[in-house]
Design a protein that fits this description.
Radius of gyration: 19 Å
Number of domains: 1
Distance between the termini: 13 Å
Mean pLDDT: 87
Strand content: under 5%
Helix content: over 70%
Shape: globular
Length: 224
């Protein structure tokens, strides 16, 4: 169970512990971003009922189990435990949330689909983050189902996911924006903005959002 730092420990210990947690969060984000990228490519490029799609979801679920354990380490340190059935339940809920998010964006045309997917995803993440926090604190899986203190982290993650979708599913729109930006500011930046891959930019936006979301989540689970 998450506990506050002991007051009698030296300040250097506290600083070191903070950096360890930040590094753990960074590693968690790298793994999560990679598995989401692999899952997205496999699911988008394969029939719904196919081995490739099934493998994509297996990669996503397995990767999220690993990231949950990494988050547990960041929150609880040496008191963290290998993911049990409650952690698996949290992961499966998140897998379902990602699946619904992509399904809505794929079935509803245009920017309206991306906006609808983002709104639904943020709502589901609010529940997922609340239940995950229950588990990380050592409480019952359903001790609290909706904690609005987790709303900020949920909106950040959903926002990053929405940008990722926008940059991936509407590349022509984004390429035009990057070309306009290059024409306006290209002489002032050392990068050819028009040559940037929109998909990579979207994935970077997702990674940044996940980093902020995990930092906020770890702090909340430890001290909230």
């Amino acid at each position: 169970m998450a506990t506050p730092e002991r007051a009698d420990r030296p300040a250097s210990y506290g600083t070191g512990a903070v950096w360890v947690r930040v590094i753990l969060v960074a590693l968690v984000v790298v793994v999560e971003t990679l598995v989401l990228g692999v899952w997205f490519v496999l699911v988008r490029s394969s029939p719904t009922l196919s081995l490739a799609t099934g493998f994509g979801f297996a990669v996503l679920a397995g990767g999220l189990v690993v990231t949950f354990f990494g988050t547990d380490l960041a929150v609880n340190g040496s008191e963290a435990s290998l993911p049990g059935w409650r952690a698996i339940a949290v992961v499966l809920f998140e897998v379902g949330a990602w699946a619904l998010w992509l399904s809505i964006a794929s079935r509803v045309d245009g920017l309206a689909g991306i906006a609808a997917a983002g709104a639904v995803f943020a709502t589901l993440l609010l529940v997922q983050h609340t239940v995950a926090d229950n588990v990380l604190r050592g409480e019952s899986l359903v001790a609290t189902l909706v904690d609005f203190d987790a709303l900020g982290a949920s909106l950040v993650q959903a926002g990053g996911a929405t940008l990722w979708l926008l940059f991936t599913l509407h590349e022509a729109f984004v390429v035009e924006l990057l070309a306009d930006a290059d024409a306006a500011f290209g002489s002032h930046v050392p990068v050819d903005l028009a040559a940037i891959d929109p998909g990579l930019v979207g994935l970077a936006a997702l990674a940044a959002a996940l980093f902020v979301e995990h930092l906020v989540g770890v702090s909340f689970s430890r001290h909230g």
